[in-house]
Structure formats: structure tokens, C-alpha cells
Write a structure and sequence with these properties.
CATH topology: P1 Nuclease
Strand content: under 5%
Oligomer: single chain
Largest sheet: none
Structural class: mainly alpha
Helix content: 55-70%
Number of helices: 15
Order of helices and strands: HHHHHHHHHHHHHHH
Number of domains: 1
Shape: globular
CATH superfamily: P1 Nuclease
CATH class: Mainly Alpha
Number of strands: 0
Length: about 350
């Protein structure tokens, strides 16, 4: 890597908190690829140029929240960006069986951590002012909760459109959908970055028989440095995105939310790529300095961005196709109409 490139990366690392996934440009790519994967019968307002740009812009919103130094928002927001999957097993929890309810899981994990405290590294209090290091992250819960919010928004949009909503109400409902789609995309994009699914997020931790890098800058380089230097763009990936396929939302025997289960499966699939990512790094496949073959590294990163876009589109279309009319709102609109004077 040239000196100026190294200098730019050092500057990046000094001003950008750790555990951002993809940086803004990568997140934009994921949201834009998701839009490209939607079917032609998906509500057309999302693809109007200004709206599509807002969905792309909102992909960076949760990282903007992280720039706030207030500890309550840092504590709340930081945990939604990742899941260190290995920590669940350390706590005696099966990732394929954990509760889909955020706070039930929190209690289960805290209990398991206390019972298996010897498996967890000591926490440096000086680096834990936001009190996040006691937890493994809550990424799949955040994604599933945004799915529920989006499904609700589609529900009241449908109700306003069919049961007497005003043009202003319909426009506001559409604006809410755009916001939820855009912000949700950030978290689904986080899940596509393997280092957001593992304790090895900032260099290899613990036993290291293959001598993978312990460089804390690897996360930032994968997130954005490599994407920028390799010239990876939405346009270069658009034709590789498959048409969106809805998730299977059939009721499960165990009662857990099927979208949550699909999201956990998605995160587990990316976690399986953590060691291959480090192996590519060891082979210098992410070193853009003219002396190395970076083709495999480029393909790896491109594949992850495409996976993120396809998963995001699948969640969007699942929320839209499984919405129903809001009965309570329908009744309220009927009462409002009945109370209005007869225009005749």
C-alpha cells in the first residue's frame, strides 16, 4: 500500500469508531442493489428518483447516530450493529434456539454469561463507558423489529389508500415506509459483513494457529478502504443481483418468528466466512499496492454486498406481501367519514 493510502487509512481510523460496517458507500450499494432486486409490482413510489436517493442516503443513518457522544444513545445503538455469534456458545446458548424476543434473550445471555464467566475475557472498564462489552450484540433482533415496523407501515398505508385516507395521510405513510426501508438496510448490510458476526471483528482473537492478522485496522479496511480503492460500485454489481424472493413466514413449531430465524441463518452463513476472510487477508488478497493479485478479495467483497442487497430486498418484499388492512384504523376512518357533513 502506498504511503499516502496508509496515511489516509490511519486518519480514517482515528475519527471513525470501530465496528462500522461497509462505511457509507458500501451501505448505499446494499440499499441500491436491494431496490434493483424488487419486482415490478412492488409499490412504485420507492423507485422515484428522489425517493430512491433518500433510501440510499438513509442507509448511513444508524452510523450517524453513533457520532453522538451521549452514552445512552451509544449504549442503545451500538449493540444493534453486530452479533458476536461465538459468545452465544460461550454462554451455553444454541444460536439456532435463542429467543426471538430481545429482552428474553438478554436475560438468557446474562444468566449464561454468569454461569460460564471463565470463558469470557475480562472487560476493560476504561474502554466500556457505554456498557456494551457485557453483551454479544443484538443485530438479528434489530432487523426483525424493523421488519415488524415496516409491515405495520405498509398496513396503514394500505388502509389509508382503501378506506378513505387523505392525500396528506397517504403521503406521510409513504414517507414513513421510505424511512424504515432505508434505515433497516443499514442493519441488513451490517449482517453481510462477516466481521460483524464474530469476536474476531478487529483482528484475530485468542488462539491463532494460522497466524492471521491481529491488526485492528482490518475492520475499517474491509468496510470501506478496499471498496473505494477497488472501485466497487452499484453499477458494477447491479446485473448480479437476483430478483427478490420472499422469506418463508409459515408458522414454526417452536413458535419463534420466522423472519428472526431467517435472519439468524443469514448471520450464521456470514459467520462461516470469517476465517476465509482472514485467510484471504493473509494471502494479501485485500492489499491494493500493485504487487498483489486482489481478484479473489474483490470477488469476496462483491459477493457480500450482493448478499446484503438480496437479503434486504427479500425482507422488504416479505413485509409488503404479508401486510393486511389495519382494522382499528379502518374503523376510525369509517367513524370520521360518518361524522363529516353530507356534501350533498
Amino acid at each position: 500500500m502506498k504511503f499516502m493510502q496508509r496515511l489516509a487509512l490511519v486518519a480514517l481510523l482515528t475519527v471513525v469508531p470501530v465496528l462500522r460496517a461497509w462505511d457509507y458507500e458500501g451501505h448505499r450499494i446494499v440499499n441500491q442493489l436491494a431496490l434493483a432486486a424488487l419486482p415490478s409490482d412492488f409499490p412504485g413510489f420507492v423507485n422515484e428518483p428522489e425517493t430512491a436517493e433518500r433510501i440510499a442516503f438513509l442507509s448511513g443513518e444508524p452510523d450517524r447516530w453513533r457520532n453522538n457522544s451521549d452514552l445512552p444513545i451509544k449504549h442503545y445503538n451500538a449493540l444493534d450493529h453486530y452479533l458476536d455469534l461465538e459468545q452465544l456458545e460461550w454462554a451455553g446458548l444454541d444460536p439456532q434456539r435463542v429467543s426471538d424476543l430481545r429482552y428474553v434473550f438478554v436475560v438468557d445471555f446474562a444468566t449464561g454469561r454468569a454461569a460460564h464467566a471463565d470463558k469470557f475475557p475480562a472487560i476493560n472498564a476504561a474502554r466500556n463507558k457505554d456498557r456494551t462489552r457485557e453483551w454479544p450484540g443484538l443485530l438479528p433482533w434489530a432487523i426483525t423489529e424493523y421488519y415488524g415496523k415496516l409491515k405495520s407501515a405498509f398496513s396503514y398505508l394500505k388502509t389509508y389508500e382503501t378506506a378513505g385516507g387523505t392525500p396528506e395521510e397517504i403521503a406521510n405513510a409513504q414517507a414513513n415506509i421510505v424511512y424504515l426501508m432505508g434505515v433497516m438496510g443499514h442493519y441488513v448490510g451490517d449482517g453481510a459483513q462477516p466481521l460483524h458476526t464474530s469476536v474476531h471483528h478487529n483482528g484475530w482473537e485468542g488462539e491463532n494457529p494460522h497466524e492471521y492478522t491481529k491488526w485492528r485496522g482490518i475492520h475499517a479496511w474491509i468496510d470501506g478502504g478496499f471498496i473505494g480503492q477497488a472501485g466497487i460500485t452499484t453499477e458494477s454489481l447491479r446485473t448480479r443481483v437476483s430478483a427478490a424472493v420472499p422469506l418463508n413466514v409459515s408458522p414454526r413449531v417452536d413458535g419463534r418468528d420466522p423472519v428472526f430465524v431467517a435472519t439468524m441463518d443469514y448471520i450464521a452463513e456470514q459467520n462461516a466466512l470469517v476465517e476465509p476472510l482472514y485467510a484471504l487477508d493473509k494471502a494479501r488478497a485485500f492489499k491494493i499496492d500493485g504487487a498483489n493479485d486482489t481478484a479473489q478479495g474483490r470477488v469476496f467483497i462483491e459477493n457480500q454486498l450482493v448478499k446484503g442487497g438480496e437479503m434486504l430486498a427479500a425482507i422488504w418484499i416479505t413485509a409488503w406481501r404479508n401486510t393486511t388492512v389495519d382494522k382499528y384504523l379502518t374503523d376510525q376512518l369509517a367513524k370520521r367519514a360518518a361524522a363529516q357533513p353530507d356534501s350533498n
